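Quick start: load a record and inspect it. Here is 1, 4-beta cellobiohydrolase:
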Amino acid sequence: MVTSMNVSKCSKAQSADYECVSYTTEQLNLLNVAMCLDAGHVGWLDWSASLQLATTLLAQVYKKASSPAAVRALSTNSAGFNAHFIVGQSRSGKHRYDYHCSYSDALQPAPEAGTWFEAYFEQLLTNADLASQATEW
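Running the structure step on this input writes:
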């Protein structure tokens, strides 16, 4: 709703986007809901012209939605993550040494936590005893 307003498709969608986000935010203001508003890509917000526009617009959306208590935070860089994605901040960008990785029976070379590990995935499939796992749907 802030950047690319020089693109016709984007500028034409801005008011509908604003109304929809405000409406949804207001409707989801429930006791059992915690919301995080997506503030966009930090690369866009880092532009001096965009930052002020974005903060003003986010404040307007929040106020138009009756300042919902269920809004807990703003998020950036969340594109492509689905509802089941959990961001792990425990490592905070620090690489670590795990002494378990040096064991002779460790599956090496293992990537950092949170990175896809194809060999481990294949090992899990190979070792799975699916016949003994009754599934009821």
